[in-house]
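Hi everyone, sorry if this is the wrong subforum. Our group has a chain we'd like a structural model of before ordering constructs, and none of us has done structure prediction before. Sequence below.
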Amino acid sequence: MPQEKYLKLGELLIRANVVTPEQLDKAIAVQKQEGGRIGEILIKLGMIKEEDMVATLGKQLNIPYFSLGSGLLKPALDQELEKLIPRDFASRNVVLPLSRNLKSLTCAMFDPLDLILLDNLRKVTNCEVNPVLATRSDIIRGIEDFYGRFTFLEEAMGGGFDSEISLAEISTEGASGREDELTLDKLIARAEEAPVVKLVDLIIRQAISERASDIHIEPFKDKINLRYRIDGKLYEIPPPAKHLQLPIISRIKILAKLDIAEKRLPQDGAFTVKTEGRIIDLRISTLPTIYGEKVVLRLLDRSKTLLDLNQLGFDQHQLEIFRNALKVPWGLVFLTGPTGSGKTTTLYAALNEIKSPTKNIVTIEDPVEYRLDGVNQVQVKNEIGLTFAAALRSFLRQDPDIMLVGEVRDLETAEICMRSALTGHLVLSTLHTNDAPSAINRLLDIGVEPYLLTPSLILVVAQRLARKLCPNCKEPYEPTAEQLGGIKLKTDLIYKAQGCAECNNIGYKGRICVGEFLPVSEEIRELISQKASYLRIREVARKSGMVSLFESGIKKVEEGITSLEEILSVSAGGE
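Answer:
Right subforum, don't worry. Here is the predicted structure as tokens:
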């Protein structure tokens, strides 16, 4: 080890001009009073950022820097590292074993200059330690992910229930490589065994506690992938062993009342769970892959559904435009955006606001995601001919005031929506387009005649969901001209994601709507009747005051609600 590595951390940071001698003296004074490591104290006092300190150390000491985002901070799963360094030692000292090669152990550390810790590691592992650098928060998250895998499976398999079934018994088929040869009776029996039942229960409960919207269980050649979608992003979770693939998937299919003998075709089902007084609806989808069935579970928490327009994130001017459209006795309102952009939730919030005993509201959805009191909801069933178009024709004989159509997918459905709007009904629906003006051109492209669209359309709303910065740990900073890339802000300071225990070290918690509202004025109607181009419609809309998705997002950045990176990722970043 070079002599420089024996220098103290404070001396290295001063040498790199990251902290001043005065700041170091202040930190040392705090250390004498309260104890702790000098690096952590400097970060706590706000004198240095965690990432800056680690990056400086890496350069000064020529030690590689690993982060969770890079994918390098993942311990090898087949080297029994959890036995080499016990979890309590790893958590207490903030170290994470990554790999072992004979007597050499690669270990992620926050402070590689802690000679006492290095010596303790050598004694505990009987290995020479090869340190790599990582931030404290990344190491803590890595410890939770790595050691949590073993705690998770021990909970599922290790007891707390009366059973004579052991892990060894469950793995018999997997060990012999014959899991595809399980008979149907044996498969059902395995799926109903207590350890598998508890494991599936734990997977679902953990997803609920981490605010996941989806669970992905994906089979591959030698492993299963388990991923949770949290606030729109997928995160890998330590998975169960490969030999549990068939019992887990069969258990889920039994719960969803699916055919467990059918593995060649996709299937859809649903079931409901109740936990801590909350009712969670789960929609199940299976998909046959070359390594077995992939299962996706969509979690819908009835108690957490945002059914209040004021809570979605639209600004007051946008809400005023929306509410004015909802007050019109007849007409067509479209919400547009990609899958997962919150269109259905916004429509439900709109219905929740305008529903009344004096109004007859009917919906046709595929699927019905949430139950609304006082609203007549119909589920699409294509196999028996109950399509969007067929339901809409029946709706007109049901004396409706307001109609919600889950999605306009074809010309027939679009035309019925417009004729319904022209005959005295308020119709709400969705489309898949990138922004509000392009929805008009999409309808014209699928064959809708301008004479139907011009008088019926009253409002188009394009929306996206942006992740909200965790209020507990978001960090202010002054962006450079390079980071802004020509974007003009009305404030010098904006916020970025940091990560803390409150947000599972993600830096974001919850999501907010970013919207683009296009009221259909007389000038826009004239353009529709002329079948004007998308660019011309957008140009006129912008001159009339339409705020783009990007501009709406930038306003959220200026207010400190979300980050610049998040808005750039969810919007085009153009006008």
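For your construct planning: Residues 1-6, 157-181 have pLDDT under 50 and may be disordered. Residues 136-157 form the longest helix (22 residues).
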